[in-house]
Amino acid sequence: MIFHVLTLFPDMVRTALDSSVLGRAARKGLLQINAVNIRDFSGNIHNSVDDYTYGGGAGMLMQAQPVYDCCCSVQAGILERQKKPARVLYMSPQGRTFDQDMAKELALEEELILLCGHYEGIDARALTAVRAEEVSIGDFVLTGGELPAMVIIDAVSRMIPGVLGNQESADTDSFMNGLLEYPQYSRPAVWDGMEVPPVLLSGDHAKVDIWRFEQSLAITKERRPDLYEKFVRDNPGLMEERRKRIERERRIEERRRRKERQAENGKKEDNSNDHIADPSDDHTPH
Ligand code: 4FN
Question: Which residues belong to the active site?
Fold first, then answer.
């Protein structure tokens, strides 16, 4: 996949490939970053690309012409390689918030153009002319769109087959997709008086998976109810499976308690009240 990054600071963007994972993927030929300096398209001897805003107010704006020419130049190359133009993403706080669904969708593209703003942004007519889709990485003030572009390159790249090693990709393909992470532990089994949850030392992989899933669900429900609702919506089958398992465990536990009571009450054989719920039974999942 080729990421074309249109920016006034191309050197800043090139460092995105210094990371071990993306660097390795680049050397394998799985991805490429083409940082293009918008200033090279200024078209004037002063190499200027910004001007004052109509209507007044503080700050400068990136002019339409250099941005448009830079984008057309890159699209011309893309049109030669693939028959269609690439999508143009304008990194902008006004955009749709980037998320994992978008990362997966963008990873299907062969080439992408990421347009980075500086100063007060880019002349709106250039954005219309290049059919820019506005994308934001979150609600905070930044000095430029380069870091957001690098965030998107990182998130999209790791979704490209072969970019992650086997060990790394196994984690993301799990059913945990869309949930926050469960707590994790490494050696020693007791550290600073704190123990690792016993289930993780049990060697029962099915039990461990269920424990982790329940931890993920609980932490997501508590801290990110928005993500929890989305997970329930996107995974009705998993939630139904979970409901059945909890019901099954409840019945097994009920039977065990009944046997326990019978043993305590001696050899008394009266089971006639067993269909009535025992108020001491607490079945609320934690
Ligand atoms: N930012 C806000 C409101 C108004 C302006 C900004 C702001 C860089 C060129 C855009 C910021 C944040 C997430 C690009 C912020 C992003 C940018 C991004 C970004 C210089 C103009 C600017 C209400 C969000 C705080 C500066 C809110 N994702 N303007 O930061 O490019 O992609």
Answer: 93, 120, 158, 173
